[in-house]
Design a protein that fits this description.
Bound molecules: guanosine-5'-triphosphate, magnesium ion
Structural class: alpha/beta
Number of helices: 22
Radius of gyration: 24 Å
Order of helices and strands: HHHHHEHEHEHEHEHEHEEHHHHHHHHHHH
Shape: globular
Strand content: 5-15%
Distance between the termini: 23 Å
Number of strands: 8
Length: 442
């Protein structure tokens, strides 16, 4: 997610960190680069201007300049201001006091509404709810079939009628059906258009009138950048949105939509879509995204994912190792293998503190082949070397390289990255990080 932005910001902070004491000019130089990195990531210029001036005002403050670790202080400020820009705390889905709670999804064509409807229903089902999906997109028969198929795959009920029935009537009937099924949630998929136009808005307004939803969520494609932001403003002025769902955050999205949309529209982001599969869906936490952008990982999401995949006991062990940084190369290897069961490796690796650098060294997506290479290198080490990589000197390095068919530089690279990852993990629990970051690492 947002690798380029993340790398650029890391580079700015590395440079700052190498300086020791900072002058006002150092800070201004750094902030100029932060500003550029944000603009290049397609963040709204007003958001950037505001953000940088908030960071500057706080950074120039005497406590930063006089502190022994000014660069860390600045990272702390950047992190806090990023979180503020993204919307402060988590915005949960609101439930109606009189079930079923109705959630209406809206959005342009292809933004991911139908997929997201299924993802959201599955998410609710996993938390013990009884969702009913409603196919209120009657513009194309295929749209109804798409939702019905998803419902079948996920074993979720779908309410549908023929395309001849008006959306608002389908919705009215669906509410009756929901009562019959004792559904606790009703998730309504609506029709999208290429562009915002009056007929679409009028239809959505009608559906809304009929459903009286507790949540009207706009589904926006994060890859469309500033268009997404403009669209959110328009939809919001017409429909009074209660939240946003950003889809395709896994793609080449540069970050502009995600970082601007809340600040500009005032509407909170509630969920993000991170892949085509139905479980590639997460509640949105501003602090977790900020820490991913700053290359500090997202241990909490990682652990939640692990919990879904493995038993609790196994997760406790993994969690302890990550948190206490008692994680050695042997663990690293066995985790790499285990982790593969949890989903695409590149998505997971970027949740581990410091590991995103490791991931970015590997060609796009940590494929089977790269994993095999890392595996071969670790397997060519003696158990002692795996537990204590510091003993690996030049001659050991050559032996390991020969044994695994790689170059000594490859071994060096692996060890360096591993050390960096360990250092970051240690920093997290050593209490040297700012307080709000410590929360992320435990
Ligand atoms: N990579 C990725 N693809 C996604 C995500 N969400 C949806 N998609 C893909 O985006 C495409 C469009 O998704 P749909 O759910 O059909 O979009 P829609 O808004 O219902 O489209 P219309 O009904 O035509 O308006 C599909 O190919 C989805 O698989 C996501 O989070 N990540
Ligand atoms: Mg659709």
């Amino acid at each position: 997610m947002f690798e380029i932005l993340s790398e650029k910001l890391s580079a700015v902070f590395r440079k700052l960190g190498g300086k020791g004491k900072l002058s006002e000019k150092d800070i201004d130089d750094a902030l100029r680069q932060v500003r550029l990195a944000l603009l290049e990531a397609d963040v709204n210029f007003k958001v950037v201007k505001d953000f940088v001036s908030r960071v500057r005002e706080r950074s120039i403050g005497a406590e930063v300049l006089r502190s022994l670790t000014p660069a860390q202080q600045i990272i702390k400020i950047v992190n806090e201001e990023l979180i503020k820009t993204l919307g402060e705390g988590q915005s949960r889905l609101a439930a109606s006091p009189h079930p079923p709670s109705v959630v209406m999804l809206a959005g342009l064509q292809g933004s991911g509404k139908t997929t997201t409807a299924a993802k959201l229903a599955l998410h609710l089902k996993h938390s013990g709810q009884r969702p009913l999906l409603v196919a209120a997109d009657n513009r194309r028969p295929a749209a109804i079939e798409q939702l019905v198929t998803l419902g079948e795959q996920l074993d979720l009920p779908v309410y549908r009628e023929t395309v001849k029935v008006k959306s608002k009537d389908v919705c009215a009937h669906a509410l009756t059906k929901a009562k019959e099924l004792a559904a606790s949630w009703v998730i309504v998929d609506t029709a999208g258009r290429m562009h915002i136009d009056e007929p679409m808005m009028a239809e959505l307004a009608q559906v809304r009138e009929k459903l009286k939803p507790v949540e009207i969520l706009l589904v926006v494609d994060a890859m469309t950048g500033q268009d997404a932001v403009r669209m959110a403003e328009e939809f919001n002025s017409r429909l009074d949105l209660t939240g946003l769902i950003l889809t395709k955050m896994d793609g080449d999205a540069r970050g502009g939509a995600a970082l601007s949309i809340r600040w500009v529209s005032g509407v909170p982001i509630k969920f993000i879509g991170i892949g085509e599969k139905v479980d590639a869906f997460e509640p949105f936490y501003p602090d977790r995204l900020a820490s991913r952008i700053l290359g500090m990982g997202d241990v909490l999401t990682f652990i939640e994912k692990a919990e879904k995949t493995f038993g609790e006991k196994q997760v406790k062990e993994l969690e302890k190792k990550v948190r206490t940084a008692s994680f050695n190369l042997e663990d690293f290897l066995s985790q790499l293998r285990e982790i593969q069961k949890m989903g695409p490796i590149d998505q997971l690796v970027e949740m581990l503190p410091g590991a995103s650098q490791l991931a970015s060294q590997l060609p796009a997506g940590m494929e089977e082949k790269q994993l095999k290479k890392v595996e071969a290198m670790i397997l060519s080490m003696t158990p002692e070397e795996r537990r204590n990589p510091d003993i690996i000197d030049g001659s050991r390095r050559r032996r390991i390289a020969r044994g695994s068919g790689v170059t000594p530089q490859d071994i060096n690279q692996l060890l360096n990255q591993f050390r960096q990852m360990q250092k970051l993990m240690k920093m997290g629990i050593g209490g040297k990080l700012p307080k709000n970051l410590r929360g992320i690492f435990g």
